[in-house]
Specification:
This protein is an alpha/beta fold. The chain has two domains: about 5-65, 2,3-Dihydroxybiphenyl 1,2-Dioxygenase, domain 1; about 80-130, 2,3-Dihydroxybiphenyl 1,2-Dioxygenase, domain 1 (Roll). It has helices at about 15-25, 60-65, 85-100; strands at about 5-10, 30-35, 45, 55-60, 80-85, 105-110, 115-120, 125-130. The protein has a four-stranded mixed β-sheet with strand order 1-4-3-2. A four-stranded mixed β-sheet has the order 5-8-7-6, covered by helices on one side. β2 and β3 (about 45) form a beta hairpin. α1 packs across α3 (about 85-100). The longest helix has 14 residues, at about 85-100. The protein is globular, with a radius of gyration of 16 Å. Pfam families: Glyoxalase. This is VOC family protein.
């Protein structure tokens, strides 16, 4: 298998609320909800960089599609890393997500490994880390 991840899908409880958070609050580009004509098909895609897409899909529909039993959500299963080019940009993004309605779990701070980061949760509890790593060059 080639390491070719093109879509990260988040199961959400309220598709419209999550659409508003990512589209209106964070400014992620999207065509909005599509697939509503299908019984378990309503989904929204957001275009990210390098051809990657973020999808939001109702949690019960994701379980149905994958043929698994829906379980309780756990924000500690994984986090999505949003790397930025400076400490100041970490602070700026953390303020933007707070204004968009995110829950700040860890304010921006100096890390033990020499970077600078903070954590937030989206409206469904998905965990994001906004991070500046002095060893990684971020190109715009």
């Amino acid at each position: 298998m080639k390491p070719r991840i093109t879509v990260i899908t988040l199961g959400v409880d309220d598709l419209e609320r999550s659409l508003e958070f990512y589209r209106d609050g964070l400014g992620f580009p999207t065509q909005g909800v599509i697939g509503q004509e299908f019984e378990h098909g309503a989904v929204a895609f957001f275009d990210l960089e390098a051809g990657l897409r973020l999808a939001i899909f109702n949690r019960k529909n994701l379980a149905h599609d994958a043929k698994i039993i829906q379980t309780e959500a756990s924000p500690s299963e994984f986090s999505i890393g949003h790397n930025v080019s400076s400490k100041e940009e970490v602070d700026k993004v953390m303020q933007e997500v707070k204004e968009a309605g995110a829950t700040i779990t860890v304010p921006a701070h100096e890390t033990f490994w020499g970077g600078y980061s903070g954590y937030f949760q989206d409206p469904d509890g998905h965990l994001w880390e906004v991070v500046w790593n002095p060893e990684w060059e971020i190109t715009e």
